[in-house]
TrEMBL record:
It comes from the Bacteria. The chain crosses the membrane at residues 12-33, 39-59, 64-82, 88-107, 114-134, 146-163. This is histidine kinase. CDD domains: HATPase_UhpB-NarQ-NarX-like. Signal peptide: none annotated. It catalyses: ATP + protein L-histidine = ADP + protein N-phospho-L-histidine. GO terms for molecular function: kinase activity. Keywords: ATP-binding, Kinase, Membrane, Nucleotide-binding, Phosphoprotein, Transferase, Transmembrane, Transmembrane helix, Two-component regulatory system. Its EC number is 2.7.13.3.
Amino acid sequence: MTASQRRSTWPATTVVAHVVLALLTVIILAGVWHLGADLWQIFAATGAAVLLHVGAVVAHRRPWVGYAIGALAMLVLVTMPFPGWSPSMLPSAVCFPLTLWRLTSLVSVRSSVVALAVAALGIVLTELVAWARLPADPGWTRLVEGGLLMLVVGGVWLAALLVRRRHEAGRRAESERLAAAVADERASIRRDLHDVIAHTVTVMVARIEAAAVTTADPATRRELGDIAEAGRDAHQGLRAMLATLGPAAVAPRADSRPREVPISLDALPDLLASAASPLHAVTFAEVGERRPLSLSAEVAAVRTVQEGITNALRHLEPPVEVTVRLRWTPAEVVVEVRDDGGKALRDVGSQGTGLIGIEERVRTAGGTLSIDDGDDGWVLRARLPTKEGA
């Protein structure tokens, strides 16, 4: 299975955090109003708090816009007079560092430094306003408070930067893994093509040369000799072309499966029968008149069926029902492997590279591969051209 089964949803913890911060802010503002704050001050602080939550939400898709909204809200809270304390200490003000985190995780490092500088200037402004509002307080209190706020903002920025770099390293490692898997599968395709096509061409050339020896007609002998020579040239060209897919020999993967699976569509019933068990129902249906396929398309079709059955048996808790269907038209054959979702999904650890290899095979054969993840199971579908449709 692939990572497409992971669906993007809004985290419940984020919703709960917004609700809790908003409720705490409402409670504090109600207390401040009871202590004598003007109604316009309450409304202004409430509006700024709403902007802070909006900025945190918007930052998930538009980090700079969300950060700007949060910065504007903090500016309103810092400069607005409030009885005895700064409204910038409202619980909803926590949303501003969250927008900085989001911004740092998405934009370039240079841009995130600019955002950090804006936050630092905001802290300086906060302490200057607080000192002007309460000049009787010792100056060291402003320095200590400002230093603590700088540590918080700087810590958030640095943590976001470290997390971002770790994710980037993970993505690079995954890209390298996928590239290695594609290269490995190309080498496997090369071996399959060389073993089958080269052998077939060699046999054809041998038979033509034998026919040339046994014929008594000189013209026919020359014609057959020319055909044999053309076959040998084709063989050499094939070897040169296959060399572009990778080295002649590649060490087998740790998760590779035996390569003795037959590559003929006629062998599919036996392949499906070998996968069936009392807990695994595997059925086969073929619709339409069978058309001739190229060797690469036939190999891709068989490998698609094999991978679809293997995935269903590996990733699903039995009982499992798998249906393999071939639907023929003059232009293409649609190979469909559908499972019913089984009893439940199994935790099989890290993902394999089987589907990557199948996609490469299908693409090489001139077809397309699609994977559908529905509520009632998975569908692996390969569309491969027939010789008439190629």
